[in-house]
Amino acid sequence: MSVPAWEAPAEVKRPAPKQVRRQIFVLTPEEKRTVCFVLLAFVLGLATKHYRATHAVTPLQAAIDHTITTAAHPPPTRTESKRGRQFP
Question: What does the alpha-carbon distance between residue 56 and residue 58 come to, in Å, rounded to a whole number?
Answer without folding.
Answer: 6
